[in-house]
Amino acid sequence: MNKAVHGGKGVEIKSHEKKQIFDYSTSLNPMPPKLTWDVSIDAIRDYPDDQYTHLKETIAHHHGRKPEEICVGNGSAEVIRTLCHTMLNAGSVVEVSPHTFSEYALSSKLAGAEVTEKRSARVDLSFVCNPDNPSGVLTPRDEILERLNDIKGRGGILCVDEAFIDLADPHESVSDIQDCGLFVLCSLTKSFSMAGVRFGYGIGDPDLIAAMEVMRPPWTINAFAEAMALQAFDLFKDLELSRAYIAEERARICKEAIRLGLNPSQASANYVLLDIGSDSKEFTTAMFNQGILVRDCRSFGFPTCIRVAIRDHETNNRLLEALSICLR
């Protein structure tokens, strides 16, 4: 097996390039609430509370849940690995869409499970990303709950990855639903533009959470990540401004993309999938030559598509200019 393919190569690429590169391959909030590095020297010198009691209480309060329903991890990717290694083994069956985040399938296979793209008579775990990655399309809450009932009827647990939902429409979240067949993945990375901090968490049945906490390595959340996460939960109301800004810029980019002959997805998130109608590798290279880094979606099974993040107005103008040049 190989490592999953991800975006987020901007830092590595910029270190080798002399020209200025604008990174549209990572989907972060272009207008995030401001957080500070307010950590005491004692918090740095001491081991963290490995139970993360205060942090879990804060998360639980935000979602209307209980602390024993919360697990934490060094980014949602670690929570996915922990979930799979807790639940799955040889003989387990996992349903994963062929066009989605590649960590779901990889983590399942590493735990020994069989991964299928088709509906199985029996299923142990099923992954859905909402909003979808890479299209940004948001599935209504009612449809997610219908899928939950379907998965439970076949003996499995539904894992809903809501990493991008706070920048789309949090009213469609199912994180408040208490159901033994539901596990919800959450992240502050995208909403608060703090990818380097690495903080994610999960919400689910207390028995599953307890087992995951045994599987999780100790002290996975460092003092800086914990401090910034606690700040973030006091600032969720400020994401309303972010959502409005993103929606306006997304509409502008999609309108211009259509004028240029592209087919944008009906995205609700802070990114959009663009079908360019030709080889995405060649087009990605052409965009890079214009100083624009976009997400080549071949790894998602879309060989003629790219994914672009929504950034600030001025920077988005650079994206549109580069698209216009590369489509000539």
UniProtKB/TrEMBL annotation:
The keyword Ribosomal protein does not apply. InterPro entries: Aminotransferase_I/II_large, PyrdxlP-dep_Trfase, PyrdxlP-dep_Trfase_major, PyrdxlP-dep_Trfase_small. Its cofactor is pyridoxal 5'-phosphate. Gene3D superfamilies: Aspartate Aminotransferase, domain 1 (3.90.1150.10), Type I PLP-dependent aspartate aminotransferase-like (Major domain) (3.40.640.10). Residues 44-323 form the Aminotransferase class I/classII large domain. Coiled coil: none annotated. One of its GO terms (molecular function) is pyridoxal phosphate binding. It holds the Pfam family Aminotran_1_2. Keywords: Pyridoxal phosphate. This is L-threonine-O-3-phosphate decarboxylase. It comes from Methanospirillum lacunae.
